[in-house]
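I have been asked to look over a protein record a colleague put together. Alongside the sequence sits a line of tokens, each denoting a local backbone shape. Please read both lines and tell me whether the tokens look consistent with the sequence. I do not need a full report, just your reasoning and any doubts. I have pasted the whole thing underneath without changing anything.
>
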Amino acid sequence: MTNMKIPKYLNTGDTIGIVCPAGYMPREKAQACIQTLQDWGYRVRIGATLGGGSQNYFSGSDAQRLADLQHMMDDDTVNAILCGRGGYGVGRIIEYINFSKFRKNPKWIIGFSDITVLHAHLFSNFGIASLHAPMAAAFNRDEFKNQYVQSLRTALSGKRTKYTVDPHVFNRLGSVKATLVGGNLSLLAHVTGTSSDIQTKGKILFLEDVGENIYNIDRMMYQLKRTGKLDKLAGLIFGGFTDIKDTERPFGESVHQLLLHIVEEFDYPVCFDFPVSHAKENYALKIGLPYTLSVKKNGVTLSS
């Protein structure tokens, strides 16, 4: 993707809207996030779907979640949109979002997990950069002080970032500069063949997931491989695969082993255990913008 549209970086006094376009989140679980964003110098606008009156898994009906997100996207006084949580639900409303105003005046969309659908859609259809980054719950229990939440603050300000990672025995060495794409493996497999599908040729792809059986990880990786998404990458970053389960009769390989097996025929640089995940270790990454990935014997750096 060339000529990416980069939303304006934020200044003191700018407004961040918080919405929940997927799963439900109580207002109190976002309170630390709201306070921290204000401490950083931003105003905060609370959407109707944060702590709303939903009685089921979702933060509201499809129509309510769509309307809340649409309103924040179209409101000129809102400078960025932080998704309170992921879960599941964006895929139900993505085809009904009107991007006509947003594409002319894009703003940072922030989140991960199910928000991968929105990131992929913005990248593939409109060439708009977005932020794969911690959401509201990451700020709780004083975690707003950690380097991962603080990386969101750095990213929103437009400062350059340089992340360093310990070496891994499965890493494949090399250095490359290319556009970064990716997100949650389950969701990237889910959008394959849809209008949100991403083109990965010549890109640095990053992947993470949570709560899956090992064989599910294997199946989804083979789906990406069979659709050609692993063939001509510039580089590949495996993030955290957390809370992974095995079947009663063991799969026979660890997640690291199966990932290595799937990509062993390719010759681009590969990084394992990068801090992008559903756990605390989740650096902010700008999807659609160039990064330099350097995988060396003594460690890995990813810099913007």
About this structure: The CA atoms of residues 132 and 289 lie 12 Å apart. The first strand starts at residue 15 and ends at 19.
